[in-house]
Design goal:
Blueprint lengths: L1 E9 L2 E7 L4 E6 L5 H11 L15 E9 L5 H8 L9 E9 L4 E5 L2 E3 L1 H11 E5 H6 L3 H11 L3 H26 L1 H21 L5 H13 L1 H16 L11 H13 L4 H30 L4 H21 L3 H18 L4 H45 L6 E8 L8 E4 L2 E4 L6 E8 L7 E2 H4 L2 H17 L5 E5 L7 H14 L4 E5 L3 H4 L4 E8 L6 E7 L1 H13 L5 H24 L3
Parallel strand pairs: 3-15, 3-16, 8-14, 14-15
Antiparallel strand pairs: 1-2, 1-4, 4-5, 5-6, 6-7, 9-12, 10-11, 12-13, 16-17
Length: 586
């Protein structure tokens, strides 16, 4: 439940802290005092849209904070833990929303900054907000369908249907795309196949272009390479053709090593060893140079073969990639792309089979959803009819009609339970709220079959029934009793008090008959003495509460007749609640 609400610089409210309790809490006050700001603050905490116009004039920001008391296993607490937030030391969850004068907002959960959407997700599990706009929204087809689904607890069936529907539509779109692009895909496939044939005829090997370039360089520069290798070998091992022995590196190193080896000094012997190792390395290098020279022969025929091969490879690298490795990568990509293009049509045939199977599953899920809605509609109609009798419409009947959706241009159609239906992500049903206003009257849509006062009572009856089916612990009603008065107003108070047995109910009302049933009564007052008006919120009891009801009844808080009537209302409501509490089933 909502344990505490703090509002600062929101609308006309300066800074108030409201302690809340279980049961029925009513919020009353003069017109313009700021009652709606209490509801607006809760709307922000439930993830509602932030508006710079909510910030009090002259203030930099508006702040709304709340303490929520929930069980450790409540979905809101679990979701908060997933977001990284935690309960405070009293086991309460702290949530907050800040709206800057510039229009931006910040949300907080357990001291942790979170997106406003996270508050919205939590709000769906711990509170609902019912206002005049929400009641009137039930006149819209989508809102009626959503309300029926909520009442019938059809969220699992709707989720199952939507998963089937989305899969079916995705497969249908892929089939349509592939079929529409068949000619383009055939042309692309032909180009890819031609390229694979061209490359296959040359059959390039990884790194072949670089290896051939090195071989061509060697074959084309035999004389220069022989001179370089011969000069290096002669310098290291001496020129075997010289008439007189020439000094060579190997011989000089041998002389140096022998000179040091004869010395009787450990340090020189170490150096001699190093010099001897250098001699071995030079000997190895001389051997490699000799072998290189032995294999270095001019081969014009081989050079011609190498250049021809390089020309064939260049014909590929001009078209398919900068190097042979790039060409081979193109081959791999082309084969993968060909598998997707599937010029044979096998992929399209397979997708069509999958699409048709998905369509059957979607139709089955749509049928199950429709049957669930029909069952819920029957129960909802009965429940609303009972509520209508309690709001001074004893002869009225409510009927919830579920029927196949009318055809919409471009919307997909499937056979559902033997009937063609236009399907959307919400299913294949339209939902109408029908009213038989009195005996003998025809059933007509609520928006056309009810007068203004009747419409308010019908919408209120719907809201009470829908709220009673809602599992959340806290419910807020914002003047949903507009257009109701007299005995019907008393019945509204009685119904809200009954709802408050199992929920925390907060009601903003202008009806004294409703306020009389409250377990806790909050009054919003406005002080207009300053440059900017400010409002406060205070709990009233006893005589102060009777004065507020007298003001609501007669417009004068000090009216003796008004106060007498107020006392009478309070006593009657208390007796009614007491008798119903004792008569309620255990």
């Amino acid at each position: 439940m909502l344990a505490e609400l703090r509002i600062r610089d929101l609308g006309v409210i300066d800074d108030v802290t409201i302690d809340l309790a279980p049961g029925l809490t009513v919020v009353t006050g003069e017109t313009g005092a700021g009652k709606t700001m209490v509801v607006s603050s809760l709307g922000l905490l439930l993830g509602g849209r932030a508006d710079a116009g909510l910030v009090r004039g002259g203030a930099a920001q508006a702040v709304v904070e709340a303490r929520i008391r929930l069980g450790a296993d409540h979905p809101a607490v679990v979701r908060a833990a997933e977001a990284g937030a935690a309960l405070d030391h009293d086991g309460e969850l702290l949530i907050g929303r800040t709206v800057l004068a510039g229009g931006r907002s910040r949300a907080h959960l357990g001291g942790l900054g979170v997106p406003a959407g996270t508050l919205g997700e939590l709000g769906e599990t711990w509170a609902t907000l019912h206002g005049q706009a929400d009641a009137l929204s039930l006149l819209r087809p989508a809102a009626r369908r959503a309300a029926l689904d909520r009442y019938g607890a059809l969220a699992p069936a709707l989720d199952e249907y939507r998963a089937r529907y989305d899969g079916w539509r995705e497969l249908a779109a892929r089939c349509a795309d592939i079929a529409a692009s068949a000619a383009r895909r055939r042309d692309e496939a032909e180009l890819l196949q031609r390229g694979l044939v061209d490359i296959g005829q040359v059959d390039p090997q990884p790194g072949e272009d670089e290896a051939l370039a090195a071989e061509a360089h060697r074959l084309g520069n035999v004389d220069a390479l022989r001179l370089a290798a011969q000069s290096s070998r002669d310098a290291l091992a001496g020129d075997p053709a010289a008439a007189v022995d020439a000094a060579d590196a190997g011989g000089l190193i041998g002389i140096a090593a022998r000179a040091l080896a004869a010395a009787d000094d450990p340090a020189l012997r170490v150096i001699a060893t190093t010099i001897a190792e250098a001699g071995v390395l030079i000997g190895d290098a001389v051997g490699e140079l000799r072998r290189y020279l032995d294999g270095l022969d001019a081969d014009p025929a081989r050079l011609a073969v190498v250049e021809a091969r390089r020309a064939a490879l260049r014909s590929l690298t001009r078209t398919y990639g900068a190097t042979v490795d790039d060409v081979l990568a193109w081959v791999a990509d082309a084969r993968d792309r060909l598998a997707l293009l599937d010029p044979s049509g096998a992929t399209l045939d397979r997708l069509r089979a999958d699409r048709d199977a998905a369509a059957e599953a979607t139709a089955a899920a749509a049928g199950a959803l429709s049957r669930g809605r029909a069952d819920a509609a029957s129960r909802l109609g009965t429940a609303v009819t009972a509520e209508l009798a309690a709001v001074a419409m004893p002869d009225a009947l409510a009927r919830i009609d579920v029927h196949p959706r009318a055809a919409t241009e471009g919307a997909p159609v499937l056979d559902v339970d033997g009937t063609p239906r236009t399907l959307t992500r919400d299913g294949g049903d339209d939902v109408d709220f029908l009213l038989v206003a009195h005996r003998g009257a025809p059933a007509r849509p609520v928006e056309r079959g009810a007068s203004g006062g009747e419409l308010s009572r019908v919408m209120l009856a719907l809201e009470v029934v829908l709220a009673g089916a809602d599992p959340v612990p806290t419910m807020v009603f914002d003047e949903v009793d507009a257009g109701v008065g007299g005995a019907a107003a008393t019945e509204v108070g009685r119904r809200l008090a009954r709802l408050a047995r199992d929920h925390q109910v907060v009601v903003v009302t202008h009806l004294p008959q409703v306020a009389a049933y409250a377990d806790r009564h909050l009054v919003v007052t406005k002080d207009a003495t300053g440059a900017v008006g400010r409002s406060g919120v205070a709990a009233v009891e006893g005589a102060a509460r009777a004065r507020e009801l007298a003001r609501m009844l007669a417009g004068l808080a000090d009216s003796e007749l008004g106060q007498a009537h107020a006392e009478e209302l309070l006593s009657a409501a208390a007796r009614d609640k007491q008798s119903r509490r004792h008569s309620a089933p255990p």
